[in-house]
Amino acid sequence: MQKQPDLQVRTKKLIEQDGLKFKDLNNNGKLDPYEDWRLSPEERAKNLVSLMNIDEKIGMMLINSRKMGLAQEDKSKTSHEGVLDESIIEKGETIFATSKVYGTTHTIANRHLRHFILRDNFTPAEMAEWVNAMNEVAEGTRLGIPVIIASNSRNENGEAVFGMNDAIGIFSTWPGTLGLAAAAKGDIQNGGDASLISEFASIARKEWNATGLRKGYMYMADVVTDPRWQRTYGTFGEDPEFIADVIGRIIDEFQGETLGKDSIAMTTKHFPGGGARENGFDPHYEEGKWNLYPTPGSLEKYHLPPFRAAAEHGTSSIMPYYSIPSIKKSVVQEFEGEEIPFEEVGFTFNHYFINHILRGKLGFKGYVNSDSGIVNNMSWGMEKSSEAERFAKAINAGTDIVADTNDIENLKLAISKGWISEKRIDESNVRLLTEMFALGLFDERTYNDPEKATEIVSTKSHWESAYEAHKKSVTVLKNSNEALPLTADKLAGKMVYIEVFHKEQERAASYTEKARNEAKELGLFTLTDHYEEADAAILFLHPKSGSYFNATPGLLELEICEDKVNSAIDGSLYQETTLSGLDHLKEIADSVHSRGGKVVMSVNIILPWILGNVEPMADALIAGYDTFHKAQLEVIAGNHKPTGVLPITLPASEEVIAVYQNGDCVSPNDVPGYDKDKYMPAGMSYAYEDSDGNVYRLGHGLKY
Predict the structure, then answer these.
(1) What's the rounded Cα separation, in Å, for the pair 328 and 325?
(2) Which segments of 334-469 are extended strands (E)?
(3) Across the strands, what pairs with 401?
(4) Phi and psi dihedrals of 493, rounded to 5?
(5) How far apart are CA 317 and CA 73, in angstroms?
(6) Are 116 and 149 in contact (CB under 8 A)?
(7) Diameter over CA atoms, the chain
(8) What phi and psi values does residue 599 have, to the nearest 5 degrees?
(9) CB under 8 Å to 543, separation ≥6 — which residues?
(10) Is-contact 179 473, C-beta < 8 A?
């Protein structure tokens, strides 16, 4: 016998039957199957879909970004005491308003949307209040269908980037996903396993759950095979077997054995793997719309294993990538002995990949969630079609919900023209609503306690575990003559200089001040603000390259450089800087070396940087991955033994990733760095080798 859930209502009433309480969500005074919490989520979903009109079904199949009222400067454009944003944005007013955006209440009550993406970054209590207010509006509608809020990941450190790092520092803050991989792979090399990932996901789940964020657009199961791909830093690296293990652990911890009232429903992305880029260009813009498979067997061997793991562990949803599989630049690919026919449309429009491979071969049972903007901006392979035709193509291919749009008009047009059957619309609605019923959103999990959200997210042990992962992520790449650790004995009577370098000078200055303050707090070094008198220098390098929304004029720059002259694709010349102050960096290194001192450099690995311009200056070189400077300082000082290892291979030089005039890359775009040597021209080796003979291949990391 199921236990009576604790039901809260704000606008509707509770009814009693068989001595039990139920929500009368459609206000008809009797218990309908969809209101009966004793029935299975699927039974309830099927009943509810039978009661919905076409407008309600259409609204269910769209998910749109939604601002919180707190983000609205004009408080007259808010409701619910400033909690909900009620502003109207005309079509084209912002890059995200691909169709007219209405206020929150109108969107829920009249446009019938129930799925929303949160990109704002307010406190846990404020998030909980916002979700509660939206659900109060939703409860008051005809059928009382609640809302569900999705977000990109919120528990990793990094600089804010829309759509990748929307939110930083509010939830327990761990290193970037590459850092989690570096730490977990280090544990595996030391005879352990990747349970650090399980702990991370378990803690993050509690924090999300408390705030009412119940759907995660995460994590990336993509395997890095093209080093110039901007999104490398959001991945777990280049090892398919390891990534498959990680994805399985993440789904198990966030969702549990089955979806329930304490689960976060995962959306694993970007099927069938976004790593196989055309020389690094990203499909957020036209130059990057192709996935290339020039190597026999690469799709099956390197890219699909993490998605098999996602399906086997029951991920609630899968997000296909924008890109198109290229016939011209690929060789024949097979899966389980069958040749894969490449239809040159984006994967969200690709019937064979979604139905035959994902559902048929991999056994995926959840729903398919498109990436943002596939009917407007990134409709690759369908550019010449209308928005209504794109909706029809995506939904008939197996996509169940279309992201970052509220364009109910064009979806309705496609249905009215008979391009999408009502049976197919119903199938998507049942899948989407089954998730919502399983999560308890119709029952005891409609509303959340803001005070409890604050309490759970501020749990001390969560933040301590995150900090431990930062320390474990630190990877020692080079350690000439045992320059590290910089222990108290080695530094007796000596002075240490600390500076942070960045592409942006202002950021470098603020980061430097923070790093020096953290070093003072730790009390591990005698600090000087003058490198001319330092006996050791600790220099943090934060290079940046490109933007994942816009193509660079030429290929993405991976060298650490300043004012470097590059050739654009159109043949013109332009200058590129990935790190400002390189001359100053050399001055510091030369000055410290002139007194027999040691130079310790840390490079923030968010891309597979080519290190030839900086590594020779360093006595010790370490890799961080949006790793806290404080945690790195503890490792540098010997307070914490280094255990992290590289989750990706760093390229030897520009020559190993050079692109011929015909557009082919010297090293294959679809093969991970650790395996590229099998395909390199004679006499070329892909991985970077430093002045001590260390090779910066997947899994490299020194100990002391």
Answers:
(1) 9
(2) 334-335, 338-339, 367-372, 401-403
(3) 369
(4) 75, 10
(5) 35
(6) yes
(7) 86
(8) -110, 120
(9) 503, 560, 578, 579, 603, 604, 607, 609
(10) yes
Burial of 493 (0-12, 13-18, 19+ CB in 10 A): exposed
Q: What is the pLDDT of residue 464?
A: 97
Phi, psi of 594 (to 5 degrees): -65, -20
Q: DSSP alpha helices (H): ranges in 85-234?
A: 104-109, 124-139, 177-189, 195-211
DSSP 8-class letter at 645:
-
- Extract the tokens encoding 198: 């399980």
Instruction: Compute the distance between CA of residue 276 and CA of residue 416 in angstroms, rounded to an integer.
Output: 38
Count of CA atoms in the C-beta half-sphere (13 A) of 593: 13
pTM: predicted TM-score of the whole model, two decimal places: 0.96
Token couple for 695: 């090779």
Q: What is the pLDDT of residue 226?
A: 98
Determine the Cα–Cα distance for residues 83 and 65; give it in Å rounded to an integer: 16
In contact, 334 and 297? CB cutoff 8 Å: yes
- Domains belonging to the chain, first-starting first, are 41-110+387-433 (no CATH), 475-641 (3.40.50.1700)
* 675 HSE (CA, 13 A, CB side): 16
Query: Which amino acid, 678?
Result: K
Per the listing, tokens 């549990």 go with 256
Cα dihedral 131, 135, 137, 139 in deg (nearest 10): 180
Contact (Cβ atoms closer than 8 angstroms) between residue 498 and residue 527: yes
Q: Is 95 helix (H, G, I), strand (E, B) or coil?
A: coil
Reduce the DSSP state of residue 501 to 3 states and report it. strand
Neighbours of 212 (CB within 10 A): 27
Tokens 């959001």 identify what position?
234
CB atoms within 10 A of CB 558: 23
Only one residue has tokens 């389980």, namely: 336
| Residue that has been written with the tokens 């990941």 in this structure | 153
Shortest CA distance to 539 belongs to which of 620, 644, 652, 613? 620
- For residue 129, CA distances in Å to 77, 132, 211, 441, 503 come to 18, 5, 8, 15, 38
> Parallel, antiparallel, or unpaired: how do β-strands 367-372 and 401-403 relate?
parallel
Among 129, 110, 137, which Cα is nearest to 55's?
110
Helix, strand, coil percentages for the chain (3-state, nearest 5): 35, 15, 50
Q: Which of 99, 86, 63 is nearest to 137 (CA)?
A: 86
For 462-484, letters b (16+ CB in 10 Å) and e give: bbebbbbbbbbbbbbbbbbeebb
**Strands 573-576, 564-567: parallel, antiparallel or unpaired by DSSP?**
antiparallel
Structure tokens at 279: 């020389």
User: Are 425 and 60 contacting, i.e. CB atoms less than 8 angstroms apart?
Assistant: no
Whether residue 133 contacts residue 80, with contact meaning beta carbons closer than 8 Å, is answered with yes
**What pLDDT was estimated at residue 159?**
83
**Helices (H), ranges, 324-482:** 351, 387-397, 408-416, 422-438, 450-457, 460-473
Paired with 216 in beta bridges are: 151, 266
What are the phi and psi torsion angles at 93 (to 5°)? -65, -35
The stretches in the chain having pLDDT less than 50 are: none
Output the six-digit token pair for 481: 């003559």
Ordered DSSP codes for 427-449: HHHHHHHHHHHHTTTTTTTSS--
- How many beta carbons lie within 10 A of that of residue 506, not counting itself? 8
Strand partners, 20: 17
Please give the pLDDT value at position 92: 72
pLDDT for 163: 54
Cis, peptide link before residue 270, omega less than 30° from 0: yes
| Omega prior to 625 cis, within 30 of 0 | no
| Long-range contacts (CB closer than 8 Å, 24 or more residues apart) made by 157-162 | 157/470, 157/626, 157/627, 157/628, 158/233, 158/606, 158/626, 159/626, 161/548, 162/119, 162/549
